[in-house]
Amino acid sequence: MKTTFFTPGPAALFPTVEGHYQEAFRLHLGSISHRSSTFRKIYQHTAEQLRILFNLPSSHAILFTGSATEIWERILMNTVEHESFHLVNGSFSKKFYDFSKELHKYANAQHKPFGEGFDASEVEVPEYAELICCTANETSSGVQMRAAEIHKLKKSNKTKFVAVDMVSSAPYPNLDYSLVDSAFFSVQKSFGLPAGLGVWFANEAMLEKSERMKKHEGIVGTYHSLPSLWENYLKFETPETPNVIAIYVLGKVAEDFNRIGVDVMRKETDKKAKLIYDFARKSDQFEIFVEEESHRSATVAVLNCKELAGQVIERVKAKSGMVIGAGYGKMKETQIRIANFPAVDLEQVEALLHNLA
Amino acid sequence: MKTTFFTPGPAALFPTVEGHYQEAFRLHLGSISHRSSTFRKIYQHTAEQLRILFNLPSSHAILFTGSATEIWERILMNTVEHESFHLVNGSFSKKFYDFSKELHKYANAQHKPFGEGFDASEVEVPEYAELICCTANETSSGVQMRAAEIHKLKKSNKTKFVAVDMVSSAPYPNLDYSLVDSAFFSVQKSFGLPAGLGVWFANEAMLEKSERMKKHEGIVGTYHSLPSLWENYLKFETPETPNVIAIYVLGKVAEDFNRIGVDVMRKETDKKAKLIYDFARKSDQFEIFVEEESHRSATVAVLNCKELAGQVIERVKAKSGMVIGAGYGKMKETQIRIANFPAVDLEQVEALLHNLA
Predict the structure, then answer these.
(1) Does A70 touch chain B (CB under 8 A)?
(2) A345 — phi, psi (to 5°)?
(3) Do B283 and B251 share a structural domain?
(4) Shortest CA distance to B128 belongs to which of B145, B107, B144?
(5) Which of A224, A259, A294 is the last residue of a domain?
(6) Within this chain, do residues B216 and B202 fall inside the same structural domain, yes or no?
(7) Separation in Å, CA of A156 to nearest CA in chain B
(8) Could you read off the pLDDT of A91-150 as tens digits, one per residue?
(9) Which residue from B minimizes the CA distance to A98?
(10) Which residues of A touch B11 (CB under 8 A)?
């Protein structure tokens, strides 16, 4: 029986990924120097494909780290001198907030109960906050913050940076990068790659801030400080020996995505999400967790279960080889999470719902 | 024509690596959760195999980062409150030293010219240094610091931490971990894996220091602070979603190494190194760069060339498909570097020397 992953990350591999890995081995990409023109061309290609996919202007650099978790730390170290502000409504947005405290920043937060989301109108940004941290998709609770709301937040806080954690939704959110200063994701979610690479978009204003902080005796880190990453990026290099093969495969998958077209992919995501939520609405076994429709994630659907989540997961797996995720943390026994990433198509979602019924 | 890499990193893949990657895909390791028992078993297996290979006692944790470069930063942030001390004799030991300054530590250094090495007797450790940073193998210059000398350094500085950068030599240096507090490497050198994973051994005394620093308002980082890495390690987990497949493949390669036996591997390395240096000694085209025999690296041989290094490299590549490294930085045109890692066997080294002659 074929195994299909509907887990919210690490997730199903995008169908082309294994082939791209084989090609990477054939091209000896595990042995080439990261200071070679071969590597620089790979970085450049990946950056170009991501620029097309995200409609990312040249004001933003495309930088690579070990994980999106690392980017939480780097962004705080490099752009927050004193105060950050976090919209916290789940385990991952809370971790971002906790990182700021651990780095001895003055961390402000506005909290929402698990399963609820934010609209711009209700957000009160503290006067001295330098960075506003939003989560486009809370993987733990299946709550999204819509791009339009994130844009409004920037429009009413023009002097502050806005950073968007889009770990479990990119490239779904259609962000306007004339308003979004920074956004980031990791490759093991929607892009369907094995884990081990974080992707960070940051703009020139952030670079300038980091350079200023560094000049004024601030500690912005070493090899992965924004100035160091950026200086290397200008040559399409990285400060350290990076995960070369993952950078190559990410470029190839982004190319595959561009061939489909990001608008088509977004529509496909909406269509599959609607199927899942419609199924839950009609079911007497499941219930949609996120009540407010506009906050309901398109890429990670969270459903309350009548029976124990573990039993549902086991039954579906035994019957069909399909693996769905358990609820996050305390919700482990009462919720399931279904990833609706590009790696699973409409037919597979239909088959899953058939097996869940 | 088959391509064989004698480059000092990224380097030739160990012959079993591609097969292990294929198996990783077959096992869906790109999709499994890093909070699952499957992942914990992988981490445990890799740790067990590394413990055997390095004869590493239980006082030391085995931790994973994105790169060895990252470990330079983490070790300084987590174990140096005020002062570090660096033995600097090449580009990589200098970077470690520079990181300390960038982190606003008081960084002390003893310098040697490029191509020279350190013996314990000539090292003068500053009174208030908390951490002594040694480089077991300077990849840039082909200079080693012998394990016995590193051990002596600790014996005469018992209250200070000793950290060993063994990036381009592990598992060759036979370190005594009752004396070495920390050692680290990355997987794209001697282990012959694609890049994207750093491996950090650190002992309990370092953990205690980091916890103490954190308690006294020190900034030791967030997810990759020593306390956070260690807490997760106790469950065989990682703070972030790590490079799961690389951790798996590293365990498999360590198992392959253990099957050969580390003593056999070290003897094999010595034998191949002797061939390379004997060749250079007799050659009128090449000259051994490192004059002092006891400082000559067993794993990265650096040779001065009569003709332009680029021409030598091109000729050998065109003739045999064998790729050797150029000298590092300023030595790019006058030196070649030959990696003598386990991935290339005696016959391949002999063939290379035949082609170089």
Answers:
(1) yes
(2) -95, 180
(3) no
(4) B107
(5) A259
(6) yes
(7) 31
(8) 999 999 999 999 999 999 999 999 999 999 999 999 999 999 999 999 999 999 999 999
(9) B222
(10) 31
How far A216 CA lies from chain B's nearest CA (Å)?
12
Q: What is the rounded average pLDDT of the residues B124-145?
A: 97
Partner-chain residue, chosen from B99, B219, B242, that has the shortest CB–CB distance to A196? B242
* Contact yes or no for A69 and B223 at CB 8 A: yes
- 0.90 surpassed by complex ipTM: yes
Whole-angstrom CA distances from B207 to A101, A210, A230, B186, B210 are 21, 30, 32, 21, 5
Where residue A1 falls among pLDDT bands split at 50, 70, 90? confident
Average confidence score pLDDT of chain B? 97
What string of DSSP letters covers A51-94? HHHHT--TTEEEEEES-HHHHHHHHHHHH-SSEEEEEE-SHHHH
Q: Is B27 on the interface with A (CB under 8 A)?
A: no
- Number of folded domains in chain B? 2
How large is the average pLDDT for residues A196-209?
Answer: 98
Q: By C-alpha distance, which of A307, A273, A287 is closest to A137?
A: A273
pTM above 0.95, yes or no: yes
Percentage of chain A lying above the pLDDT 70 cut: 100
Task: Say if CB A342 and CB A265 are below 8 A apart.
Answer: yes
Q: Does B99 touch chain A (CB under 8 A)?
A: yes
User: A196, B243: Cβ pair inside 8 Å?
Assistant: yes
Chain-chain contact of B66 with A70 (C-beta, under 8 angstroms) = yes
Q: Whole domain around residue A317: which residue ranges?
A: 4-12+262-356
Q: Is B31 in contact with A7 (Cβ distance < 8 A)?
A: yes
Is the CB of residue B109 less than 8 Å from the CB of residue B132?
no
Domain match, B167 and B282 both: no
Please identify which residue in the block is written with the tokens 């480059």: B7
pLDDT for B9 beyond 90: no
Q: What is the CATH number of the domain that holds A308?
A: 3.90.1150.10
The shortest C-alpha distance from A196 to chain B (Å) reads 4
pLDDT band at A196 (very low <50, low <70, confident <90, very high): very high
Cβ-based contacts under 8 A for chains A and B: 167
Residues in B touching A99 (Cβ below 8 Å): 222-223
